[in-house]
Amino acid sequence: MPTEMEEEVFTGKLDWKLWRKTATFAKPYRKHIALLISIGALVSLLDTALPWLTRNMIDAITRSDSTGLRLQLYAYAAVVIVFVLCINAFILTAGWIATGIGYDVRKAAFAKLQDLPFAFYDRKAVGWLMARMTGDCATLSRVMGWALLDLSWGPCVLTAVTIMMFRLNWRLALLVVALTPILLLTARFFQRRILLTSRALRKANSQTTASFNESIVGVRTSKSMVREERNLEEFRTLADSMYNHALKNALYSALFIPLMLSICSIGTALVLWRGGLLVGPFGMSLGTLVAFVQYAGFLQFPVTEICNMLTQVQGAQASAERIATLLDADVEIQDSPEVRTAVAAHTASITATPTSKNLASDGKSTRIDSLEFRNVSFTYKAGRSVLQNFNLKVHAGQTIALVGPTGGGKTTIVGLACRFYEPTAGTILLSGIDYRERPLHWLQSNLGMVLQQPHLFSGTVRENIRYGRLSATDAEIEAAARLVNAHDFITTLKQGYDTPVGEGGSQLSSGQKQLVSLARAVLADPQIFIMDEATSSVDTQTERAIQSAIERVLKNRISFVIAHRLSTIKHADRILLIDQGRILEDGTHHDLIRLRGQYYDLYTNQFTHEREEALLEQEPRP
Amino acid sequence: MRATSRILWNLMAGQRGRYLLACAALAAGTLLTYFSPLLVRGAVDGLIDSNASRGIIAQAFANLRQQTSLSTALFFAGLLVIAATAAGGALVYLKGRWAARATEEIIRTLRLRLYNHLQHVPMAWHDKSQTGDIVQRCTSDVETVRNFYAAQVIDVLQNLSRILIVVPILFLLDWRMALASTALMPIIIGFTAFFFRRVQGTFKKSDEAEGALSARLQENLTGIRVVRAFARQDFEKTVFEERNATDRAARWKLYKLLSIFWASSDFLCFSQTALLILTGIWSVQSGRITVGTFIAFVTYGQMFIWPLREMGRTLTEVGKALVSIGRIQEVLAVPEESAPAAPAGGPSNSNPAFPGRLRGDIEFQNVHFSHGTAEVLRGVTLKIPAGSTVALLGPSGSGKTTLVNILLRMYDYDSGRVTLGGLELAQLDRKYVRSQFGVVLQEPFLFSKTLAENMRLGRHTASDEEVFAAAHVAAIHETVESFEQKYATLIGERGVTLSGGQRQRTAIARALLRDAPILILDDALSAVDTHTEAAILASLKRGHALGHRTTILIAHRLSTLMHADQIAVMEHGRIVQLGTHNQLIAQDGLYRRLWQIQSALEDDLRTDLNNDGQRRATLEIALDTDLNPGGITHAN
Q1: Where are the domains of chain B?
Q2: Per residue in A76-107, pLDDT tens?
Q3: DSSP calls for B41-106
Q4: What is the pTM of this model?
Q5: A262: closest CA of chain B, how far (Å)
Q6: Is the ipTM of this complex over 0.85?
Q7: Range 104-123 of A in CB contact (< 8 A) with B
Q8: Which among A76, A106, A258 has CB closest to B244?
C-alpha cells in the first residue's frame, strides 16, 4: 500500500483560519508574548534613538557645547545598557515561547498518536509521522517564537524611524520613505525565491542520500551486472541537479544584499544632495544630515526582517497545516458515551465499596468466556474488501490456527478481534456482548500479542518484560521468563535481567527478542492471546523453546495462532484455512489432512521445507 | 592538520582560478564599500569649511564647490556614493557568484568521485562497513565541507580583508582614532571564539536530548501494535513526556547561554563604539581631526565591528569541516579493486582480440580462500562443461556462495586455479569476467526504479519484446500485467512492495536478459512456490538447448536440484560428494538424507490418515454447535 511520505506545497497566500487555530498553542504564553512585543517596540525605539543621539553629539561638538555633549554621552550609555538588557530579555522570552510551544505541540501530537486508529497508521509511513513530530514541530515553534519578535520590531522601527525623520525634516523624510516600498518589494521577491530554491535543494539532497544508500546496499548487484558506468551516469544527473539548485540559491543570496545596499545608497545620495543644501543657510544642522544618512542606510534592516518573517511564516504554513491535519484526524475507535458513563459510575462506586474491584472498569464481568464474529464484513479505507460475512465462535481454552496465503485476511481477523479495527458490518461479541459496548482499554489490557518481528523498547530485559504488567514484581518477571524458556538465555547475558537490549532490541538475536516478547505477553496474563507468525523468523533452537512452552502459555486462553511452522499449527484445536476473506477449510489437523484440500498441499510442502532446512542448518564443525 | 589542509587544497583543483577571482572581487568590493563613508566625510568637511579641508576627497570636493554651485557638487557627491555602493555591490555579487560556482564544482566532483569510488572498492570492504556510516560521510560530511568552501573560507577572507584594508585606512586617517576603534577587536574575537568552544558541550547535549526524544518516538510508532496490545498508551505518554521535558530543558539552557552571549557581545561592540566616540570628541575638540573624519570613523566602526562577532562561530565550523574532510578521506583512501595482473592488451571488454562472449566451461582446481581468519574454501576441485547444469548443495556456511563470489571476482582466491572458457580467471579484467555471467543473488536487490528498468539492468538495450520474453520465462509476466501500471510500476517505498517470491522472479528475468554464457541462481527460488518453480525450471531448460548456457544452481530444495547434470554436495569448504541424482541417492550422505524426507512425509501422513479416533467425534459436535454453517465454504 503506498503511503504518503512527503508533500511540500508552497501556497502563496496566508491561510488565516489555519493560523488562528494554530494560535491556540500560543494562548498559555499570552504574558510572554505581550512582553516580547513590548520589548520589540522598546528595541525599535532604541534603534531609532541611537542615530539621533549621534546627531545630537555631532551638533554639540560643532557647537562646542560640552555640557550638552556630556548629557548626550550619558544618554548614549543609558541607551546602550537598556539595549543590551533588552537583547538578553528578548532572546530569553522568545526562547521560552519557542521551547514551550515546541514542547506543547509535541505533547499534544504524541497523545493524539496514541489514540489514532490503525487505519491511520496504514496510510501514513512512520517516516512521515516522524517528520511531523520533529521537523514540523521545530519549524512551527521557531516561527511562533521569533516571528512575533520581528512582527513587533520591524513595523515599530519603521514607524519610529519615519516619525523621527519627519520630525527632523519632512522634505528629506519623504525622499527616504519613498524608498521603503521598493525595498519591501525587492526583499519579498528575493526571499521567496531563496526559500523556493532552498526547498528544491533540500529535496535534491534527500534524493542524493537515497541514491548513495541504494548504491551501497546494491553494490553486489551493480558489480555483478557491470552497471558501474551507467549508475554513475544516473548519479551525475542527480549531482547536476544539486549543482544547479545550489547555484541558483547562492546567486539569489549573492544578489540580494548588494541590491538592498544599493537601493539604500540612493537614499543616502538623495539625503546628501538635497540635505547638504539645507545645512547651514537653511537651518539644518550637520548632525541632522548625518542622522539622515544613517537612517537611510538603516531602513533595509526592518524591511529585510519583515519580509524574512513573512517568508518564514509562509514556509511554516505547510508545517502548521500538517500538524493541524494530524491533530484533527478522527480517532474513530473510542469508547462510546454510554461506556464512558458506565466507567465513570463504576469508578465512583469503587471508592464507596471496594468489593467490586474484581470487575472491569465499566462494572461488568472482566471474564471473557467466548469471542464471536457474527456476520462480520470488513473493508479497508482504500476500498479493498477483506472479509465478507465472516462467522466464528471461539471459547476460552481454545486455540485457533489461521493458515492460508498472505493477504487472505488472517491478520485482519486478528486486528478485528483486538479492536484495532472495527467491523464495517456485523458485530463482534465478547461473552455475548458487542465489544463496542465495553471499554476499549479493558479489552486491550486483556490482550497478549507476539508478532513476527518482535518489537522491544530500549531499556533492560527486565523493563521490557515488565511492559506486559507494570506492577509485576521481579519474581513474577522471572517466573514468566521461566515459563517461556527465556530464563536460561537471560541469565547467560552479562548483566542478566538488567542487560540493556539496545535500540529496538538490537543487542539481542531475533530469537532472543522473540522469547522476551513472549515472556512479556505471558506476564500480562491475557485472556486473548495472539501469535502472529511468531516462529517464522527465529532459529530452530528458539522455535523449539517456544514450542515446548506453548501449551502452558495458551492454556485457558482464547488463542489465535497465525503460523507457517507446522509444529505450531498441528496442535491447535481448530485450524481455519482462510483465503479471500473466507474460511475455506475448517477442522483439526487430522480432519484437514483427510480432506486432501489446500491445507493438505500446504502441509506437505511445509513438511518437506522444514526438514530440508533442518538438515542444512545444522553443521557440526570438524 | 597539514595533511587535511593538503586534501582541501587538492580538492580545489581546477577551481583555484575562480576562487582567486572571488577573492579579488571580495577585496575590491570591500575597498569600494569603505570608500563611500570617505565620500560622505569629504562632502561634510567641504560643507563645514571648504578651505580647511584635509584629505584628497575633501579637497577635490572643495575644488568642485569652488567651480560649480553647491547643489551640483553635492549632486556629484551623491552620484559617487551610489556609484561606489553599486560597484561595490556588483563586486560582492561577483564574489558570491564565483565562490558559489567554484564551491559547487568542487562538491559535484567530490560527490561523483565518492559515488564511483564506492562502486569500485572491493566487496570485502563493503562487507565490513556500515551503510549508514558511509552514507553519512557521503552526505552530511560533504555538506560540511561544502559550507567550508562556500561560507567559512569566504567569511574568514572577508574579515581578513576588512582588517587588512580598513585598518590601514583608519591608521592613515588618524592613528589615535584608529587605535581607539580597534582596541577591543581582539577581545571581541577572543570572546566569541571562547564562547563557541565552550557551548559546544551544551549544543551536543541539546542534540542528544533531541535524539533521545526522536528515538523514543520512533520506537513508539514502529511498535504501535505492541503499545495498543498492552494498552500502554498512558505509560508511553509518561515516558515521552520525560524526554520531551529533558529536550525542552536542554534547549532552554542553550537559549539562556545564547542570550548571555549576544547581550555581552553586543555590549562589547557598543563599548567599542563608545570608546571611538569618546576619542573622537576629544580629537575633534583638540582640533586633530575634522568632524567629517569623526563621522567616517563612526561609520567604519559600525561596518566592521558587528561582523566580527561571527568569527568565533566560523572558527568552530572550520574545525568541524576539518573533521569531516578527514572522514571523507578515509573512504577515498580505500584502495579500489585491483586491475588484472596481466599486462595491457589482456582480455577485457574493450580488447577486440578476445571474444565478447566466452565459452561457458569452468574449472576449479584445488582452490583455497580465506575470509578474515576463517578458511572458507579448502581445496575445491570441480569441472563444469559448457552448456551443462551443476547444482551445489550444502549446509549454510559450507562455501557455496563464496564459490560464486570467486567466479565473479568479488573476492580473489588465495591459491589453486580457476579457469573460465580456458582462461585463468585472475588474469582477466573483473568487469570482463562479470559480463560473462547472469546472476541472481541470494535475497536479490532491486532498485527503486520501475519493473522494466529493473529488468533492463541486465541489458539496457533489450527491446520490450525481449523484456516480456524474459519475464515469461521467470513466470513474473502475469504478475506484472496485474499491476495498474504494468511494467512501469515503481518498486519500493514510493511504489509497490513486492513479495519475496516476486522479487526473486524479477531478478531472474533481469539475469536472463543478460543473455550471458553462464547463469547462476544462488538460492534464487527459495521464496517461489513449488509449482511456479517447476514451471521456471522447465522454461529454463527449454532455453538451455538453444543458448548452450552453463547453469550453476544453489538450492535447498531437492526438487530444484535433482535434474542437474551433476550435483555437488559441499561441506566445510570442500566438495564431499559429486554425481547425478541416481548416483547420490545410492550413497550415504546429505543428499540421500534429503531424499528420505519424502518417505518421512508419507509416514507422517499415513498415521494421520489412519488414526481415526475419538477426537473426530468430539470435533463434529463442536462444529455443529459452534459454527454458523452459512459461514463455512469448504473447498472442492
Answers
A1: 12-174+303-335, 180-288, 362-594
A2: 889 889 988 988 998 899 889 989 998 999 99
A3: HHHHHHHH-SSS--SHHHHHHHHHHHHS-HHHHHHHHHHHHHHHHHHHHHHHHHHHHHHHHHHHHH
A4: 0.76
A5: 5
A6: no
A7: 106-107, 110-111, 113-115, 118, 121
A8: A106
